Amino acid sequence: MKNVRLTTYVLFLLLAISCGVPQAKYDQLKEENEKLKKEITECKFTPAQILDQATTYYDEQDYTKSRERLKVLIAKYANSNEGKKGKGLLRKVEGDILKSARANVDDKDQGKDKNPEKEESKNKEKDKKALSKMKKKYDINDDVTWYTDKSSTKLGTKNYIQAYVGKKEKKPWLGLSINYFSKKKWLFIERIEVIVDGKTFEIEEDSPGEFKSKEESGGKREWLDRVVKKKDIQLITKMASGKAAMIKFVGKDDIYKRTISKTEKKALQNVLDAFVALGGKL
Question: What are phi and psi of 236, to 5 degrees?
Fold first, then answer.
C-alpha cells in the first residue's frame, strides 16, 4: 500500500513540476514523499535488526541514537521478544543518559568552584620550589642570569652531561653541556650518541668547531656547550624521564661510552622544571 502511495506522490511531483505548482505546495509534497520513503525503508527492518542497531549504538555509547531505535522497536513490536528486550535496554540507555547529564553538570560546577587566586598561588609555589634547586649566578658583563642544578659541576676533569638556563630580561633559554675527560688518549669526537630505553639519538656539530678540545690537568678534555634547539629539548626531556640512558662518544679511531647516572637525570629534570618556572616552554 505504501509503495502505491509513494508512486502516486512521485507522479504528482512530476506533474507539479511540469504544471507550475506554487513552491510552497511543491515543498510540502516533496517533504511528504521523503517521509514515505523513510517509512518504507523502516518497514524493511525486522525487530531483530532494529534491536541489533540499538545495541550497537549503545555499545558505542551513542545513547541518543540507541534510544531512538528502541522507541521505534517498542512502538511497532512491543509484544515481540525483541520488543520486550528493547524495553529493558531502553531503561539502561535512559539511565546512562541521566548519568552523563549529571556528570556534565558536576564538571561545570567543578569549573565554577576553581579559585583563580588559589591556582595562581599554587603555581607560584611550584615555580619557587623548582628554582630553589638551582644555583643562580649573574653575569654583569652580558647582563645574563645563569641557572644550574646544585649538583652540577664545571670542572673540566669530570665526565658529565648537564643542562642549564640563561635568562636576559624576560625570555629564558636552555643550554646543553657535555664533557669528556681522559688521562689516556684523544678521541677526536665526531659525534655523540645518546641511547634512551633502547632508542638512539645523535648529537652532531651544528657548525664546524663546536666540539672543542684542549689539554687540561694532565689529561685530554673534549666538550660541547651550546644553546639548544627544539630537537635537543626533546632529547633532554627523554634523558631525564628515561629508565635507562647511556652516552657514547664516537671518535675517529675509538669509542667511549658510559651510563648516564640517576643524579645526572634528576639534575636534567630539575633544570627543565626551572626553565618552565622562568617562563620557558618545552
Answer: -60, -40
Integer angstrom CA distances of residue 206 from 165, 224, 226, 228, 232? 20, 11, 9, 10, 12
- Is there a contact between 182 and 219 (Cβ–Cβ < 8 Å)? yes
pLDDT in tens, the chain (282 residues): 545 454 555 455 455 455 555 666 556 656 665 665 665 666 678 989 889 888 888 877 888 989 998 998 899 898 999 989 989 889 988 888 888 777 776 655 565 555 677 777 788 889 999 999 999 998 988 889 999 999 998 888 999 999 999 998 878 999 999 999 999 889 999 999 999 999 999 998 888 889 999 998 889 999 999 998 888 898 999 999 999 999 999 999 899 999 999 999 999 999 999 999 999 988
**Residue 216 has which C-alpha cell?**
687540561
What pTM value is reported for the model?
A: 0.58
Amino acid in position 160: Y
- Residues in Cβ contact with 148 at an 8 Å cutoff, skipping those fewer than 6 apart: 134, 135, 137, 162, 164, 165, 271
